[in-house]
Amino acid sequence: MKIDGTRIKPLREGMGLTIQQLADKVDLSPSAIGMYERGQRTPKLKIILILAEFFSVDVNYFAMGFTVSHEQIENSYIATEVFKRASGICELCNTMAPFIRSNGQPYLETYILKDHSISAEHVAAVCPNCLKKLEVLQLPGDIIYLKNKICKN
Questions:
Q1: Which among 6, 76, 126, 131 is placed 20 to 30 Å from 138, CA to CA?
Q2: Averaged pLDDT, 45-69
Q3: How far apart are CA 89 and CA 81, in angstroms?
Q4: pTM listed for this prediction
Q5: 113-121: which pairs have CB atoms within 8 A and are 24 or more residues apart?
Q6: pLDDT (tens digit, 9 = 90+) per residue, 102-153?
Q7: What CATH number has the domain spanning 2-64?
C-alpha cells in the first residue's frame, strides 16, 4: 500500500494555511507535515484518515494504485494499537505469541468483543488457539476476562 503525502500541500495551500497552522489544527508536528509534503516520510494510515476528514476529501485521494475505505484504515490503526498493547503476549492465555511473522513481529490475531464498536478498547490480541476457542466455544468467562483486562489498560 503506497500513500502519497505530497498531495497534502495543494490542499493546505488551497485553504491558505501554513504548515504550522495545519499542524496546530490536526495536532501533528510541522516537521512531520513538511516531510510528508516533500515525500521524505510516508504518513501512517491513521494520519491519512485525519487529514482526509480535515480537508473533506475521500481517503483515496492519498492512495496510489489502490482503493481503501475508512473502515480499513481504522481497523488497521486499531490492530496496530492492540498489538502494541499486547506486546507479543496473548491477552487471553497470557503466553507469548506462538509464531513470528516474516517482519519479525509476534503473530497474534484480533478478536472483537461482541456488542461493542470497533476500537482498541474493544479488541483483544490473542493467539490462534485462543481465537478459535473464543469463536467456537464463546465461553462467557473468557469474554468477561478479556473485557476486564482490556479496561484496566
A1: 76
A2: 85
A3: 14
A4: 0.60
A5: 113/143, 113/146, 113/147, 113/150, 114/143, 118/74, 118/75, 118/78, 119/78, 120/78, 120/81, 120/82, 120/85, 121/150, 121/151
A6: 888 899 999 988 665 567 888 899 999 999 999 999 899 999 999 999 876 6
A7: 1.10.260.40
